[in-house]
Specification:
- By secondary structure, the protein is mostly helical.
- The protein has 2 domains: 9-138, no CATH class; 143-178, no CATH class.
- The protein is built from 6 helices and 2 strands.
- Helix 6 links the parallel strand 1 (147-152) and strand 2 (172-178).
- Helix 1 (9-33) runs antiparallel to helix 5.
- The chain is elongated, with a radius of gyration of 22 Å.
- The chain starts with 8 loop residues before the first helix and ends in an 8-residue tail after the last strand.
Length: 186
């Protein structure tokens, strides 16, 4: 799957960030559940099974498509993929840890899932915000060279076209929408 896709610095960063986030999320979950005092048994379970979390994160996140999305232009369905991916990663990790006879309490897994999902969402939101601010700076400099566009067909296709124009690097600005359906008035 990765061989046919271009490996970019952003993907490399996410390949490192996501597994690290899974480890940090589990450590924080153990810390939170135990009120800041990690029992020796919990620490032993973590040190015996730490490798399960990043390995399952890389496998599941790659298969689900975390690294194939264009996060600068992501929509709701792509963020649902993040939730599904972190849930699958949790399920697979719990199954492997059960087979190894190393497991945490249910509440630890719930807090872990919440922290991991939040971390995965957060880095992608930050990237989206950063890339959109860079894009705005680029288009802001070229105000005189922008071309105003009239879109005929204000339905779903027109809406998609407006989104594409706003998020792409072109100098075209949607200015006017005209619906070509004679059955719709005003």
């Amino acid at each position: 799957m990765l061989s046919r896709k271009k490996l970019t610095p952003k993907k490399i960063f996410l390949f490192v960030y996501d597994p690290a986030a899974s480890l940090i999320a589990m450590l924080l979950a153990i810390f939170i559940i135990n009120n800041g005092d990690i029992p020796v048994r919990q620490w032993q379970i973590f040190t015996s099974s730490w490798f399960v979390l990043p390995i399952t994160a890389l496998i599941i996140f790659t298969l689900v498509g975390f690294y194939d999305q264009m996060w600068a232009f992501a929509r709701g369905s792509q963020y649902l993929i993040l939730t599904a991916g972190t849930t699958l990663q949790l399920i697979l990790s719990v199954l492997i840890m059960q087979i190894m006879d190393l497991h945490f309490g249910f509440s630890t897994y719930v807090v872990y899932w919440f922290l991991l999902t939040s971390a995965v969402f957060l880095i992608r939101f930050i990237y989206r915000f950063y890339s959109s601010s860079v894009r705005l700076k680029r288009t802001g400099k070229d105000r005189q060279s922008q071309k105003r566009v009239m879109i005929v067909g204000a339905g779903e296709a027109g809406s998609q076209l407006i989104t594409e124009l706003k998020t792409s690097m072109t100098n075209r600005v949607p200015l006017l929408l005209i619906d070509d359906n004679p059955l719709i008035l005003n």
